[in-house]
Specification:
- The structure is a single chain.
- By secondary structure, this protein is of the alpha+beta class.
- It contains 9 helices and 8 strands.
- The protein has helices at about 30-35, 50-65, 95-110, 115-125, 130-155, 155-165, 195-205, 250-260, 280-295; strands spanning about 15, 20-25, 170-175, 185-195, 205-215, 225-230, 235-245, 275.
Length: about 300
């Protein structure tokens, strides 16, 4: 149903309505595919005015045009060929368009230098993008992403309830800081051990467990602690994971205590082998595992 002239998706002029009857429809512009290199056809339909305007701007920028449009949701005439000269200082470059186009990459690279970002934008937009515009784009994207992440953190309890509803054997432990009574609770750490993975580890995997920690790339930082086992085919088997504020003695002991409880590892820890790959925390792992669980380790 979607697709322009050069789209990879199948095109169709028919859709099925709610009564199960086929209706004749025009071509639809698919922004996920056709926005890379917009091409228009007479009679093409767009999901919204915003998608149409973005497509027109991108086409104009790619071909070095400038245009003006009237406040009208319908294009009365389409002229596929133009003889306009290419314009590098193109007024079609707008902040909202830059934010939508470079949002994902900017969010993944919060330390991206504005000068380097501006060069990347110029190369892809084929029009002038100055350092100030790149800086404003970066600020707008990070503010939007941070706001989105804050909203997601506020719904962590709903996420926990849904995981336990789907599988009651799932373990979720969320810790927050309530020390500041004048503000909302501040998230500290969260442990997750999914029920099917927990039961599979206890019933059919080897008694070998690897522990590791890694930094999280996000506006709020933090670290990811993981416990991975080995199944009967010598493949990796994720057991549990946790997002913590820092990789230290307190966070690792908290993580290991919950892990041992989930796997029914007794105090003697007979038959279990521990693999430690994090040099920074290896001493903490081995010391705690040996003194508290008295287990074997490698």
């Amino acid at each position: 149903m979607f697709g322009g002239e050069d789209s990879d998706e199948e095109q169709s002029n028919n859709i099925v309505n709610f009564d199960g009857e086929r209706e004749e429809q025009g071509l639809y512009f698919n922004p996920k595919i056709d926005m890379v290199r917009p091409r228009f056809q007479f009679g093409m339909m767009f999901g919204s005015v915003l998608i149409l305007r973005d497509a027109l701007r991108l086409m104009a920028l790619q071909r070095g045009w400038e245009y003006q449009y009237e406040k009208n949701d319908k294009i009365k005439e389409w002229i596929p060929r133009h003889t306009c000269n290419r314009t590098f200082n193109n007024t079609m470059v707008r902040m909202k368009l830059l934010v939508r186009k470079f949002k994902d990459r900017t969010a993944l690279n919060p330390d991206w230098n504005p000068k380097s970002l501006a060069k990347t934008m110029q190369s892809e937009m084929r029009a002038k993008v100055n350092k100030q515009m790149a800086y404003k784009d970066k600020v707008a994207v990070l503010e939007e992403v941070e706001g989105s992440i804050r909203d997601q953190f506020a719904r962590l309890k709903d996420y926990e309830n849904e995981l336990k509803r789907v599988n009651p054997d799932t373990t979720v432990d969320i810790r927050c800081d309530f020390s500041n009574s004048n503000k909302d609770p501040q998230f500290q750490r969260m442990y997750i051990c999914l029920g099917p993975l927990k039961n599979g580890m206890k019933s059919g995997c080897r008694s070998v467990m690897g522990l590791d920690g890694a930094f999280l790339k996000s506006p709020f930082g933090g670290q990811l602690l993981t416990a991975v086992g080995v199944d009967a085919n010598n493949n990796s088997w994720v057991i549990a994971y946790a997002m913590v504020e820092n990789e230290n003695k307190d966070s690792w002991i908290w993580f290991l205590e919950l892990l041992c409880k989930d796997l029914d590892i007794k105090e003697d820890g007979v038959g279990w082998f521990l693999l430690v790959t994090s040099k920074k925390a290896s001493f903490l792992h081995v010391k705690w595992w040996c003194q508290v669980r008295k287990s074997n380790f490698v």
